[in-house]
Design goal:
four-stranded mixed beta sheet; elongated; 5 helices
């Protein structure tokens, strides 16, 4: 009995469908199929299938390099790989399900699938040279640089202020301003004002200035105003 061979575009579409269904169960937004990510995913799946390799760096590049070469200008990316072989072959949706379930059951791969700020997806599936039907699936995730956000911390006091943002420590000197660009929203926490400990936390949002101003009672307060951008 001949092996069952899947239709690879159908497999690709089913992987996107099943991935979005899983994200929906996690209360996350659906991802949109992107032509550049699809191009990169298909090219890398074909490369792995042709060369008999299975690695995120088989071509000497990282996923971000391949995605950029395909024309996708990114600020966040992720990549999942899957390999399946079976002498009986695969129905299209069965192959898609095996790939998606494998990724869900692997913490690093699942983390890519449920990354909350990803917006785009591309999938490529290719058949490898093998006596039994063997298929490699490449799943790419992206958030474009156009969705990067920007905010500013401005210190109008006479003392330095330290603060934390996205897990990193920063300090802004008196009469200075620091502009941050970031891919994903995160918390900004103002920690010290000179020798005084602070406990002020805010969600850092796009297009805002967190202006540190003198305050008679606490020493410093935060005033939030719109950021004036150059046009």
């Amino acid at each position: 009995m001949p092996a069952v061979l899947p239709d690879t575009p159908t497999v690709e579409a089913a992987i996107i469908e099943m991935t979005n269904a899983y994200r929906g169960k996690q209360k996350l937004g659906a991802l949109t199929a992107n032509a550049d990510l699809t191009k990169a995913a298909r090219a890398y799946a074909a490369y792995l299938a042709k060369n008999g390799q299975f690695s995120h760096t088989a071509d000497g590049r990282q996923a971000g390099d391949r995605i950029a070469s395909a024309g996708y200008v990114w600020c966040q990316v992720g990549e999942n790989l899957a390999l399946h072989v079976d002498s009986r072959g695969f129905e299209s949706r069965v192959l898609a399900q095996k790939s998606v379930e494998g990724w869900i059951n692997s913490p690093p791969h699942r983390a890519n699938m449920v990354a909350p700020y990803m917006t785009d997806i591309g999938v490529g599936v290719a058949r490898a040279n093998n006596k039994d039907p063997k298929f490699i699936s490449v799943q790419l995730f992206g958030r474009p640089q156009s969705l990067q956000y920007e905010f500013q911390v401005s210190n109008t006091t006479k003392q330095s202020v330290s603060y934390s943002f996205a897990g990193e420590e920063h300090e802004v000197q008196p009469s200075y301003a620091v502009t941050h660009s970031a891919c994903n929203p995160s918390e900004i926490s103002f920690d010290t004002f000179g020798s005084k400990r602070l406990s002020m936390r805010y969600e850092a949002l796009d297009g805002l200035v967190y202006k540190l101003k003198p305050d008679p009672a606490s020493g410093v307060r935060v005033e939030i105003t719109p950021l004036e951008r150059l046009r």
